[in-house]
Amino acid sequence: MENVIEVRGLTKSFNGKEVLKGIDLSVKRGENVVVLGRSGEGKSVTIQCIAALLTPDSGTVKVLGQDIHSLGEEALKDLRKKMGFLFQQAALYDSMSVRENLSFPLKAVLKIKDPAEIKMRSEEVLEAVGLQDAIDKMPSELSGGQRKRMGLARTLVVNPEIILYDEPTTGLDTITSQEISHLIMDVQKRYKATAIIITHDMHCAKVTADRILIMNDGKYIAEDSYEALENSPDKLINSFFKF
Amino acid sequence: MLSSLTRSTRQFFEDTGSAIFFFRSFSRNIFRSDFYWGEFIRQCYLAGVRSLSIVLLTGFVLGFVLTLQSLPTLKQFGAESFVPDMVAISVIREIGPVITSLICAGKIASGIGAELGSMKVTEQVAAMEVSGANPIQYLAVTRILACTFMVPLLVLFSDIMSFLGGFAGINVAGEMTAVMYFNKSFANLVFSDFVPAFIKTIAFGFSIGFIGCYKGFNASRGTESVGIAANSAVVAACVSIIIIDALAVQITSLFIYN
User: Fold this and answer.
1) What pLDDT score was predicted for residue A190?
2) pLDDT at B258
3) I want to staple A92 with a disulfide (CB 3.0 to 4.6 A). Which of A51, A139, B54, B215 is the partner?
4) DSSP single-letter state for residue B221
5) From the CA of B53, how many Å to the nearest CA of chain A?
């Protein structure tokens, strides 16, 4: 199976503090990789470098075979059409309704002009995340869980090959967190997307991960399945699974 | 003291470089085929229609007060009949464009700075960027062009209201028919009074939109930065209007009134 994401020797510093200290990461097509780690370890920085929202100090990031940080403006836009990013707070466009949030990427990114197709695709993703009734609501009228679902719907509407999830269950109650975790799995089965999921939520990690990476002090210190890492003799690794 | 000066100088050059880079991004995105007409019209509505009431009121009061203030002085020289001419020339050449643009800087630049700053802080701009859409084209180009288009129109409406305010003022203090007042107002106005004023209002509108967008796009993280973006957008837009006006007056004096 081909690698759709390949990160080699990634380093990134902020104000002299080295957050990423030479990260290597490969993700195969259709794989769900979960990244665990304490807050401030650079998990979100890694996926922001993968999405080219941040420029690394050194190292390479290849997405679908292309070095994302050496691409020109148009080529980067084309590559980003194949990627989705679910932000921690969903980052919904708050001046637009749910319908407009979904139609915006279809019109602005995929240049779809046909209203019938826009309506069909919007309704399809809303049905996939269970938010059909919210189509005419404003983001401010949605609950935390609904906002996350809506953020996921907006990510899915352009049918991306890769989805980067930045703490998809943070700030949600246990039941809603479990629903979101199962939704991520449903999405993977339905859309066959490759995913990197940054999380602190062990239930989410257990449900969604094909493979788990544990990050400590700007590096990955362990990589295996949930069950294997849960039974690791290493105290630090094992501490993530005591909940 | 020296280190503070060095830091301020470095900050100034960094800000200038960043503004030039933002202008470059803006220029590269103006003439793209996929212009967001719908968003442009929405921004014209927000910048223009939503500011109309305060601009009309300010314009009226401006003409009214200018008339009442200048009337007693001119009366001493028996020159009260020149009040309409004086008000008209002052309003068209200078006071109308500058005061209206300063009002717009307060109303529009702060709104744009706060809105875009909030979008930046809540990662909406990043979400737009990572989806493959172009936030500069959608958010900045439409707003800057809307301001460039609407501020001259607002100045026009403000000028009309100033004439009406002047007419009301002169009739509070004395009596003059509308026909006589407007005849006298326009008697000494020439084409060269309108053109430089109109051109500078375009520059004022551009600077209001550009500074609002630049400050909003450069808001750092945290809610405090939204307030800072809005506040600094107003201050910078007002300063830029005054500087542009000073330059415009010099250029106009050099080429037209000499």
Assistant:
1) 81
2) 61
3) A139
4) S
5) 23
pLDDT in tens, A24-36: 999 999 899 999 9
C-alpha to C-alpha distance for B207 and B214, rounded to whole angstroms = 10
Q: Measure in Å the smallest separation between the Cα of B26 and chain A Cα atoms.
A: 14
User: Cβ contact (<8 Å) for A53 and B130?
Assistant: yes
Taking CB atoms and an 8 Å limit, are B126 and A91 in contact across chains?
yes
Q: Give pLDDT tens digits for B48-92.
A: 999 999 999 999 999 999 999 998 888 888 888 888 999 999 999
Best of A95, A150, A157 to mutate (most B CBs within 10 Å, chain B): A95
ipTM of the complex as predicted: 0.87
Q: Which residue has the higher pLDDT, A103 or A2?
A: A103
Chain A residues in contact with B134 by the CB 8 A cut-off are: 77, 108
Q: Does A14 touch chain B (CB under 8 A)?
A: no
Chain B residues with beta carbon closer than 8 angstroms to that of A89: 122-123
SS3 annotation, chain A? CCEEEEEEEEEEEECCEEEEEEEEEEEECCCEEEEEECCCCCHHHHHHHHCCCCCCCEEEEEECCEEHHHCCHHHHHHHHCCEEEECCCCCCCCCCCHHHHHHHHHHHCCCCCCHHHHHHHHHHHHHHCCCHHHCCCCHHHCCHHHHHHHHHHHHHCCCCCEEEEECCCCCCCHHHHHHHHHHHHHHHHHHCCEEEEECCCHHHHHHHCCEEEEEECCEEEEEECHHHHHCCCCHHHHHCCCC
- Give the minimum alpha-carbon distance from A51 to chain B in angstroms, rounded to a whole number: 7
At residue A138, the pLDDT reads 95
Where in the sequence of chain A do the CATH 3.40.50.300 domains occur?
Answer: 3-82+160-239
Looking at residue B5, its pLDDT comes to 83
Name the CATH architecture for the domain at A3-82+160-239.
Answer: 3-Layer(aba) Sandwich (3.40)
Closest-CA residue of chain A to B122: A91
Chain B, nearest residue to A83 by Cα: B131
Give the β-pairing of A32-37 and A17-28: unpaired
- Report whether pLDDT(B132) > 90: no
C-alpha closest to that of B206 among B27, B77, B57:
B27
Q: Integer distance in angstroms from the first to the last C-alpha of chain B?
A: 46
- Single-letter code of the amino acid located at B194: F
- Given a contact cutoff of 8 angstroms between Cβ atoms, the answer to whether A138 and A171 are in contact is no
Model pLDDT for residues A112-137, shown as the tens digit of each residue: 989 999 999 999 889 888 888 889 99
